[in-house]
Amino acid sequence: MNRQRVAGATAAPRFEAEALAIAAIGPIDFTLAAGDCLGLAAPSGAGKTRLLRAMADLDAHAGSCRLDGHPAEVFSAPDWRRRVMFLPAESAWWFDTPRPHIRPDRLAARLAALDLDTRLLDQPIERISSGQRQRLALIRLLSYNPDVLLLDEPTANLDGPNIERVEALIDEYRQQNDACCIWVGHDRGQLERVATQHLVLDAAGKPTDTPCS
Amino acid sequence: MQLISLSFFDLGLAAIAVLALAGTAFAMRLGVTRTLLIAALRTTAQLALVGLVLEAVFAQRQLIWIALMAFVMLLLAGREAAARQKRPFAGGYGFAAGTASMFLSSFVTAVATLLIVIRVEPWYTPQYAIPLLGMLLGNTMTGIALAMDRLTQEVWRGATVIETRLALGATAAEAIADMRRDAMRAGMIPMLNAMAAAGIISLPGMMTGQILAGSPPWEAVKYQILIMFLIATGTGFGTLLAVSLGARRLFDDRHRLRLDRLRPV
Fold first, then answer.
1. Hey, are the CB atoms on B163 and A58 less than 8 Å from each other?
2. Which of A170, B12, B149, B170 could disulfide-link B165, Cβ–Cβ 3.0 to 4.6 Å?
3. Which residues span the membrane (chain B) (predicted)?
4. What is the ipTM of this complex?
């Protein structure tokens, strides 16, 4: 098995996965320190999303994840997910407008950082474009102050300048909150920019040694 | 006023009217002639059968036979409620949850009414127990069938909403609360409509029957009000219980949505 080595091995582990597997995908292992970001790349259909869902304990899985040394089982499932939070590629909305979905904490600053007008908060969800919704979903996620961000292609619907803004906001959040991040993406160049360590899966969902640069 | 007994000749006259309708429907090519005739025959056969059973049970007046008949009615109602589901639970859970809810709500309501309100001696006197339970079960079955169908369909369609809420740290109960509430309300609507329409738009069947059988209207009205309240209570609590059991089944102990517990369509 390929074990990804921690970059700064001296730092205390913040988020770890050990033999994490779901169906035929994995097993994978990694150890992230505070502020680390793991770039997870794989061909389409290899099961990246299912691995993120397993980390958030949204699906039954084998292996275990630990946060600050505590395994997921010692947390209640909702408590674990408030700390280890999954951002799906397509987020759902259930109120009529974005505002009641998002906690007010630092809202204005983050909207500005992603070039979003505050008036969007009170518009009907259907009238908001997919790119704006994707950025709002990220702001909703950050408003819960999670310790680990599980990001499933967080810039898939965005244009160049907005991709940079999202990368900058996530980077700033990681540094300020000692948070970790798992970033699933297709764009190898982006993963090189944002990630501090890398994990590549082959089409069958097994880790490979293929360098991603 | 005396009860006027109907002869088979009287029923035959009514049957001729149905045949006239069947003939008209056939002439107009409505395509329901066969169904209409089969339905008329089914009504006759089923009611004749239940009449024979009731005659026997009423003659015996023994708790064991009345309990057996009640149990058979309960199982049939449970099966009927489960059969009306578009996306039923896999492995008979829907039948079990529906039947258990009907048992708790209908039986408790019926027995409590016989013991506390009507105070008939003995309390299981079949002339009171069987019709009372029948009306309760029939209405509770409709409520539970509608509510469970609504719940499973809404959850199926709204799975991404539930999972997004779970991902943001909601408990299973919080994530499904809206859909659970909608399903409970859907199950109660027929009962609410029946209560609102009673006497103005429709004369309830039991009251009509009592008046035809010679009861003073005022006595029939009092019984009908009692039945309405019992149906409201039985249907309401039965629906709440069935939806709660169903909503719980859709998640596991780690608050994961388990759509695999619904039968694939």
1. yes
2. B170
3. 6-28, 35-57, 63-82, 94-116, 128-148, 189-213, 225-247
4. 0.91
